[in-house]
Amino acid sequence: MVKMESTEEQDRKLVLEFIHLLEKSKQLFNGLRDLPQYGHRQWQAYFGRTFDVYTKLWKFQQQHRMVLDSKYGLKRWQIGEIASKIGQLYYHYYLRTSETNYLNEAYQFYAAIRGRAYYSRAIKEDRPDLMVKKLRYYARFIVVCLLLKKMKLVRELVTELEKQIQEYTTTYEPEDHLEWSLVLEEIKGFIKAEAAVAVLHADSNPIVLSHSGSGSRLSPLTTPPCERSPHMTLSLQEILIVGSACEQAKFSELTMDMFRMLQTLEREPTETTHPMSASHGLHGHDASPAASRIPPYGVPGSKGYMENSRHYRDNPHKYLLYKPSISQLLVFLASGFKELPPGGALLLYMSADGCFSTTKHPEDYGYELGGLATSVKRDGVDGGGLACRGKSYKETHCLYPGDLYPFTRRPMFIIIDSDNSFVFQHIPRYFGQPLVVLMSPQDVPPAFQAEVQHHGSLFTLFLHSPLTALCYICNVGDVPIHHWERCQSYVDHFITEASRLVTRCRIDEIDQGYIDSSYVQFFGDDFLRTLILRFVFCDVVLRLHRGFRGRHMRPRCEPPLPSNELLEHPTLSHIIFQLATALDVRGHFSDGPECD
Q: What is d(CA 345, CA 412) in angstroms, rounded to the nearest whole number?
């Protein structure tokens, strides 16, 4: 009898311990939203504590599942909810650190929820809030799969989500049914826009390429070659990716341009596991992620991903801002500026609609030529464009070139994708630091205008996947895989030749026939070198394409890249003509470079 009481007492203590861990985990998780979104040290210790509690909770429910089932009444959806929270933890840690391995960890937990059907009986609980959790889980899983380019799984999940939304709407007739319908349409529109050009397998089914330079993350196979020189001193360390284009396809506060650019600025996740991670990742008995993989790659909060055996991360740190207010944008820029280590460079990428000036005779290039619309938020101030006492006030929610002047105290690489991009070509180098500005064409041929506005910018597509962009402007909708790989070899050849030409240009900051030292200093970084060379590809292609007439339909850069020695070099033009012939689109291109 005493033994029975002892067992019951043990079970009761186990249940109480589980309840304590569950409440503690919820409390810590809810506190994550109050952490500052910028800076590094301010939030890491809190993430570390949260990971620690979820590690204990996950292990605890695995080790004591039978007791919790019988004495606590633990339901499968509750296990699913814990796994979903851990998946969210990993996803947000990926967003804060830019380390793609954490994205894989989020995927493992989300996939386990689906594989074990933890939410399968949610509709039978007669709880609409539980169904909403299930729908949110699907939306989050889709985002992770999109970022990992698991497009076949994305389509399966969208089909399942649509079915779940119908079931939710029919059963509960909820007030938010229209919101979920909009979420579904947003996802479908995003997937359609993302597939600019289909690469076809032998059976004519579309496939997703991950290591062929087709717009995937950087890998040893896709990193452009480089003849190193002592001048190549800088490393990209901080990135701000801003998406403010109004009509562009988006999902989960990621516009298409942001989605493409963030992948362009990441390396492929590594397949090797950290010693703290489970060797196989999943337990055979229930296909649940192993507790020992929480957290891998060093304890979050220790900043070990920066300070252990190396001073630089595999991926530069990124901030993603969707339609920020101007104050948010400047705060995040200042944070990136502050966090730059010695020898580090800051990259600002902005995809936005133009704010146009009505000043007829501008004297101040910093503020009188217009800029970029950040968002419709006014930061508590009345809108701009108001006339008062004969003076025209500037738009308060617009980023002007002059707003960036203070940040040029450190090496800065700027990419502007807008119909008002050229106003950023006049940023002065007051502080003598390396500065490069890549600017998109301000216009595209009428045939592309509507699609480009919704499906994502052509310029960003060139920087993300040069071959996809060339196919797109030549109306090539699908390409067989063997043919794609052959065409990709021409792109690789172009990039190799362009890299050779850049490194052999003489360095000077004044003479037109020379290359500015800023390019050379940035060229040693794999990501910045890739962007510079893909910019060259874009410029050469649009210069030769018959449909892109006029200077406003071609990109610009500041400082200018040398023309004869690089942009109009016959070797590069010849490779483009070869590529066009291989794609059977030679008729889209002129016989020689178009003259201004």
A: 6
Return d(Cα 477, Cα 471) in angstroms, integer: 7
Q: Which of 518, 509, 593 is nearest to 549 (CA)?
A: 593
**Per-residue CA distances from 348 to 16, 100, 376, 416, 464 (Å):** 50, 20, 20, 8, 16
Please identify which residue in the block is written with the tokens 């600025």. 265
* 218 domain-assigned: no
Contact 426, 535 (CB under 8 A): no
Pairing of the two strands 398-399 and 370-373:
antiparallel
By three-state DSSP, how is residue 107 classified?
A: helix
Q: Residue 397 has what pLDDT?
A: 86
Final residue belonging to a domain, choices 153, 169, 198: 198
Residue 501 CA to residue 567 CA, distance in Å, equals 10
CATH number at residue 41: 1.25.40
Range of the domain at 91: 7-198
Contacts of 469 (CB under 8 A, 6+ apart): 196, 458, 461, 462, 538, 541
Instruction: Please give the structure tokens belonging to residue 510.
Output: 């004044």
- Number of structural domains in the chain: 2
Residue whose entry in the numeric block shows the structure tokens 């929820």 = 113
Closest CA to 115 of 140, 158, 83, 143: 83
Q: Is the peptide bond before 559 cis (omega within 30 degrees of 0)?
A: yes
Q: Confidence class of residue 462 from pLDDT cuts 50, 70 and 90? A: very high
What whole-number distance in Å separates Cα of residue 372 and Cα of residue 440?
13
Q: How far apart are CA 492 and CA 120, in angstroms?
A: 47
Q: At what angle do helices 481-504 and 466-473 cross, to 10 degrees?
A: 110
Residue 380, by phi and psi: left (phi above 0), alpha (psi -120 to 50) or beta?
A: left
Q: Is the residue at 340 inside a domain?
A: yes
CA distance 403 to 400: 5
Place of tokens 């807008």: 418
pLDDT tens digit string along 278-299?
Answer: 333 333 334 345 444 444 444 4
Same domain, 465 and 531: yes
- Same domain membership, residue 584 and residue 471: yes
What pairing do the DSSP bridges indicate for beta strands 344-351 and 235-243? parallel
* pLDDT given for residue 433 in this prediction: 96
* Pairing verdict, β 387-388 and 370-373: unpaired
> Is residue 180 domain-shared with residue 323, that is, in the same domain?
no
From the list 340, 417, 327, the residue with the least C-alpha distance to 375 is 327
**Three-state SS for 73?**
coil
DSSP label at residue 123: G
Average pLDDT over residues 397-422: 96
Distance from CA of residue 460 to its chain's centroid?
Answer: 12
Q: What is the pLDDT of residues 493-508, one digit of tens each?
A: 999 999 999 998 887 6
Query: Which of 457, 460, 439 is closest to 448 using CA atoms?
Result: 457
pTM for this prediction: 0.89
Q: Per residue in 265-294, is it b (16+ CB within 10 Å) or e — as a string? A: bbbbbeeebeeebbeebbeeeeebbbbbbb
Of 585, 579, 573, 586, the C-alpha closest to 485 is 579
**Residue pair 417/460 in contact by the 8 Å Cβ criterion:** yes
What is the number of alpha carbons within 13 Å of residue 129 lying toward its C-beta? 2
Which residue is it, tokens 């501008």?
362
